[in-house]
Amino acid sequence: LNCSFACERGKEAAVEMDRTLLFSLLSLLFTALFTLYLSDSAVRRQESVLPTLKCPWVEGEELVGQCPKGTLTKVPDVTNAEDCGLRCCQDAACVTWLYRGDTGCEHGPDVRIGMEKDGTPKWCEVDPPRPWQGQHLIESKKQDPATSALRVQACSAETWNPNALQGQCLGLGDQRKGAPSDDPASCRDACCADKSCDTWQWREDKGCFYGKRGFRCYEVERCICRSSPLPSILARPHNLCVSCSEFAFQPFTGRRKRIPGRNYLTRDGKPQS
């Protein structure tokens, strides 16, 4: 009897052990299958995203210049250039993106840069922002440049303000080659000698531009400028800007998607291969 009872208890213990082992094996199998499922899902999600990241950017190009206001549209809730470019890459309607810490992320259509003529009428600077020198000779568009009181002050070497227009003015036409592009004073004098001229601008790497008031000037925080400390015989004929706001003349970061059939130029105006 005692043996029979012990045998029965042994059989029950064995069955219980088998159940525990089976449960453990099933748990392991379920865990393995679930892990495999998650891994496969991750791969499929990655495969669905990767093709969108292969954007047809214009080769070897980075947009560093400013675009006129209204050319691109601000994208909210983007705080770095990488995310700005990624969103443009994934957006079929976005061709151009631009980012800088103060302006944030901007998206928009195709734009021309530099000397490009093909494609859209929208245009952006090819070079990063740098301070200009220049001045309006009128106080409002309604004034006659020939009789403006400001003209007398602005055309005098003693009372002119060459740092009045540090942001680029658009619409002043082509560069005035020759003597006007030598220095800011020469550009000023050429403008003042033309009774129809009411705005001039000069930059060392760009030369002189003047004409009727530019239709739009970029607004920037004024640089803090001082006169050159060098003796007059050695000093350049213009003031030196020694400090600016954090972003005023920092380069932008951006790119353009290549449009089939569109002709693109390099920075020096040569066709891209």
3D structure, described in words:
With 273 residues, the protein is of the alpha+beta class. The protein has four helices and 13 strands. The chain has helices at 2-53, 81-90, 149-154, 184-192, and strands at residues 73-75, 96-100, 104-108, 112-113, 123-124, 133-136, 169-170, 199-203, 207-211, 216-217, 224-226, 240-243, 253-256. The strands form five sheets. Strands 1-3-2-13 form a four-stranded antiparallel sheet, with helices on one face. A three-stranded antiparallel sheet has the order 6-8-9. β2 and β3 form a beta hairpin. The longest helix is centred in the first third of the chain and has 52 residues, at 2-53. The radius of gyration is 34 Å and the shape is elongated.
For the structure shown, list the relevant keywords.
single chain, 273 residues, alpha+beta, four-stranded antiparallel β-sheet, three-stranded antiparallel β-sheet, 4 helices, 28% helix, elongated
